[in-house]
Amino acid sequence: MIKAATLYTNNLKALRRFYGNVLELDVMESTAEQFTVRIGESHLTFKQSEKPAFYHFAINIPGNQFSMMKYWMLDRVTLNREEGRDEVYFPSFDADAMYFEDPVGNIVELIGRRKRDLFGDLTKESFLNISEVGITTPHVVEVGDELQDLGIPLRNGTEVEPDELNFLGRGDNYILLAPLGRRWYFSKKVSEAYPLELTWNEAYLKVDEEGRLSFE
Fold it and tell me: Are 71 and 91 in contact (CB under 8 A)?
């Protein structure tokens, strides 16, 4: 499970306003250099950097609240489209998804897990946890092997595909390992390498600007 993720941005103020005021998530910590929001069981931190950056990450939401969440989001953002659609069903995950971009261009996916229900009104608790975080690197095979050595399994098989999108994890939580220059689904952007940090269960993972992985 992804307990925490740290991403970088050169426009911290815009993101703080977006995640705190537009998505109405709880801001747990806020300084001039970083802020953290709670996403259910996970924490998402943005740190100030000199260079612009964008990432792809996903948030789990209850499957039975997908339509409610979509209408709620449409009052706040413009949903991305792919072949004329603004949502998609993934049979292999039994989940529906919608995508949007935040003020700095992070590609955010909301995944409605059809086997996870939450009854009652839509609230901030409907954002269940960080589901996926994309790691873009020119060292796909090397990083994939290191993640598997840490006990994070490849979803299909054991051999990482250097030119494809690789899912590592289990259940409803994955690291998406991507090569450079691959177009993100429901986006016109192609994958680029930027530094990030993840806490996966008890392991602390760090990816540097060159896409190299280190861990504790």
Answer: no
Q: What is the CA radius of gyration of the chain?
A: 16
Q: In 3D, which of 97, 131, 133, 138 has the Cα closest to residue 114?
A: 97
CB atoms within 10 A of CB 201: 11
One-letter amino acid at 115 equals: K
Residue 85 in tokens: 């659609």
Please tell me the distance from the alpha carbon of residue 172 to that of residue 1, in angstroms, as a whole number: 8
Q: Could you give the CA distance from residue 32 to residue 186 in angstroms, rounded to a whole number? A: 32
Tokens linked to 200: 């996966």
pLDDT average per 10 residues of sequence, the chain (216 residues): 97 97 96 97 97 98 97 97 97 97 98 94 95 98 96 92 96 97 97 98 96 94
The letter for the amino acid at 208 is D
Using left for φ > 0, alpha for ψ between -120 and 50, and beta otherwise, residue 68 falls in alpha
Which H or E run includes 68? Answer: helix 66-74
- Per-residue model confidence as pLDDT tens digits over 37-60: 999 999 999 999 999 999 999 999
* Percent helix, percent strand, percent coil in the chain, to nearest 5: 15, 40, 45
For 146-162, the pLDDT digits (tens) are: 999 999 999 988 899 99
Classify residue 38 as exposed, middle or buried by CB count within 10 Å of its CB (0-12, 13-18, 19+): middle
